[in-house]
Design goal:
By secondary structure, this protein is mainly alpha-helical. 64% of the residues lie in helices and 7% in strands.
Length: 498
């Protein structure tokens, strides 16, 4: 476990901090934003021509920390080209050049996942065609469907990343990213709860205009700090937990769990909390039923999770005393987040009947990308646009219902089939006996032993997938690069170690 924080972890962490600071500076001085966009894009392009894996490292780093991908951007009229779009274009372009020069071999075509991705991609193409057929707005069709193009990265990933050392570096990049998410989440939380007004306006508008997340006052002296990229903290918790259990040092290394858990708590996200709670229950049941853990061992793991939860709350409350702030009733703050009258919750509930009604218009093959639904909401954004709170959108919080609306029940079926295939291939790699038994264990259907740390990684990734699938019910991640990138990584790693 501690090896994750050794070289080149520190280099990746410092690089991430530098990029975030440049993004903040680019908000304050717009010229810096454009300069960084072009310089970084050119550097990554040139480096990728010689070592495409470095371009993919840059792309994954941005994915882990960048939320909506606008750390840097370039605008042409009303069109904004995000840094994520630039990195995607760089990787795909260099890979296509490599294909033409026969440097790469389209390895994914021989993958056990290929037919599942291919069938689902046909349904995505139908979603675009249906949007045009039903005369949905062409602009909305593009904005609605373009996130799915991220799945094309599976081709260069399979050609470049199928290597033990490269996967190890990706894991360290991931560790550096969620470490930075913990630091950034807490620092911003501290500055806002302590009303450091010299920094609050720039930080707030930087986070909002770059699509990094939201800072919301829950009461007069407490703020929630939510980043979409904190989904990787949620995934990271289960990866860390599995690695710690496999290392046989639960009592010595459990404190590492504080790193991914702190942002989950500070986010005050109901979707994150629900995904975390259900996934913990499934995790413990899996250890008991499939891995035959004793009740004593299950109890130890459960108590560690409870301790991390209590310690994290204590850490937050203690931070409010430096310097002193008014006392905070943490219980009442949590209660506020779960009241139906809370704006975001009421908006989700309000859109549900209208969304279901729109789905039933064309339930089998869907209404195509760009399909909009109007509903009445008390969300401040809706009230700003219409005095009665009428809100029209093509993007919905109910992730699976969004997919059903756009590509129908057939498309949703093939999406679930793809998710099931990835999950199934991962679980095949976990032997039906309690771990850790020895330093190396055989993966089923494999002639080669695999170290316990790799089995732990597989186990953690499986539960990262579970938490992502649960969260997607009420917060759309699996139709977004944040979730799609994770699906690609899981597919690659499960197949490579299989």
């Amino acid at each position: 476990m501690k090896s994750l924080f050794q070289k080149p972890f520190r280099f990746f962490l410092l690089l991430i901090i530098l990029v975030e600071l440049l993004s903040l500076l680019g908000f304050i001085i717009p010229f810096v934003n454009q300069l960084c966009f072009f310089i970084l894009s050119i550097i990554i392009f040139v480096v990728s021509l010689f070592h495409l894996e470095y371009g993919i490292f840059a792309l994954l780093t941005e994915l882990f920390i960048g939320s909506k991908g606008h750390l840097f951007f370039f605008e042409i009229g009303s069109i904004r080209i995000s840094f994520r779009m630039a990195l995607f274009s760089v990787v795909m372009l260099v890979w296509l050049v490599g294909i033409l020069r026969r440097k790469y071999k389209l390895s994914f075509l021989r993958s056990k996942f290929f037919i599942f991705y291919f069938l689902f991609f046909i349904l995505l193409i139908w979603g675009v065609a249906a949007g045009l057929l039903y005369q949905n707005s062409k602009d909305l069709i593009f904005f609605d469907a373009n996130a799915w193009l991220y799945l094309l990265l599976i081709f260069p990933f399979y050609d470049v990343l199928a290597d033990d050392k490269i996967i190890e570096k990706i894991l360290k990049i991931f560790t550096a990213a969620i470490t930075w998410l913990a630091i950034k989440s807490f620092v911003i939380f501290f500055l806002f709860t302590h009303q450091v007004k010299a920094m609050m306006p720039d930080l707030y508008y930087w986070i909002r205009t770059r699509g990094l997340g939201e800072i919301t006052a829950i009461d007069s002296s407490f703020y929630r700090v939510f980043f979409q990229s904190q989904i990787y903290s949620l995934i990271g918790f289960f990866v860390f937990l599995a690695l710690i259990i496999f290392s046989k040092n639960l009592k010595k290394n459990f404190y590492f769990l504080f790193i991914p858990f702190l942002p989950i708590l500070i986010s005050f996200s109901r979707s994150y909390w629900l995904g975390f709670l259900l996934s913990v229950i499934i995790f413990l049941l899996f250890l008991k039923i499939k891995e035959k853990f004793s009740w004593q061992k299950i109890g130890e793991i459960f108590m560690v999770i409870i301790f991390i939860f209590i310690f994290s709350i204590g850490f937050i409350l203690f931070s409010l005393k430096l310097p002193p702030k008014p006392s905070i009733d943490f219980g009442s703050l949590i209660e506020k987040r779960f009241t139906p009258e809370e704006p975001a919750a009421s908006s989700r509930i309000a859109q549900l009947p209208y969304l279901l009604s729109a789905i039933l218009e064309k339930p089998t093959l869907g209404s195509g990308f760009g399909k909009t639904v109007s509903y009445f909401s008390r969300d401040p954004r809706a009230l700003e646009r219409h005095p009665l709170g009428l809100y029209t959108t093509y993007a919905f919080e109910w992730g699976y219902l969004d997919t059903w609306l756009k590509i129908g029940l057939v498309g949703l079926f093939f999406f679930f089939l793809l998710l099931w295939k990835i999950f199934r291939e991962g679980t095949k790699l976990i032997p039906n006996s309690q771990f850790p038994i020895s330093n190396e264990r055989l993966i089923p259907n494999s002639q080669f032993p695999i170290p316990n740390e790799k089995l732990a990684l597989i186990f953690g990734l499986i539960f990262g997938l579970i938490v992502l699938m649960i969260t997607h019910f009420t917060s759309p991640y699996l139709n977004h690069p944040l979730g799609l990138g994770y699906l690609i990584l899981c597919s690659l790693i499960f197949e490579f170690y299989g």
